[in-house]
Known about the structure:
Elements: E1 2-6, H1 13-24, E2 28-30, H2 32-42, H3 51-60, H4 75-85, H5 88-102, E3 108-112, H6 115-119, E4 125-130, H7 133-144, H8 153-169, E5 182-185, H9 191-213
Helix pairs in contact: 1-9, 2-3, 2-4, 3-5, 4-8, 7-8
The chain binds cytidine-5'-monophosphate.
Cytidine-5'-monophosphate binds at residues 9, 31-32, 35-36, 78, 81-82, 85, 112-115, 163, 167.
Amino acid sequence: MIVAVDGPAASGKGTIASRLARHLGLPHLDTGLLYRAVGRAWLLYEDAPDSTRRAVELARHLDVDSIEPHALSAAGIGQAASQVAAMPAVRQALLHLQREFAHQPGGAVLDGRDIGTVICPEADVKLFVTADVETRARRRLAQLGGTGEITELDDMIADLRRRDERDAGRADAPMKPADDAHLLDTTDLDIEAAFRAALAIVEDAGARKADTRD
Ligand code: C5P
């Protein structure tokens, strides 16, 4: 079974995807980490005249096994990730490995922005997880526990908005729900309730799939 989980930053999609994967016994890929790893390395070349070419080279040579998630959580890296993610050739360079991950035997859970629309339009179940921006900003600040470069609520709201606008406004693979995605608004849900709601959607899709096979 392939499960696609998309949505904006701090909507809860990453936690939902990782808990679904654990529950279903499937491997999980947080595709944002790929863009973050490229974005972090690209910051060195951000102002170079050939900065797009540099980003594409970094994406082509990305060593997925060497990615260290804890080193990629800074807000500045999120913005850099979103800048390189708007470059079609960077997305193209990262496409194959995401599709290969999704299509391993037994399936997988992937989370990102374009999993249900571009990476796996054939996914068995698609979730688009949202929450209002203030709730997302509060969650992100709580996660960082005052250690990040952004510590004020208004600044975090502005940072998330900037990223949402770039991600939803880009021409190639913009962040948007697939036509057949299930929308899950987690604004008023804690993580346990959000996971339960997501699991109910996935189990229902699994049951329907089994029915159509009978
Ligand atoms: O999910 P996360 O916030 O770590 O993603 C960082 C950035 O990577 C996003 O803001 C987005 O620009 C980009 N991204 C993307 N497509 C994906 C996953 C992430 O464009 N599938």
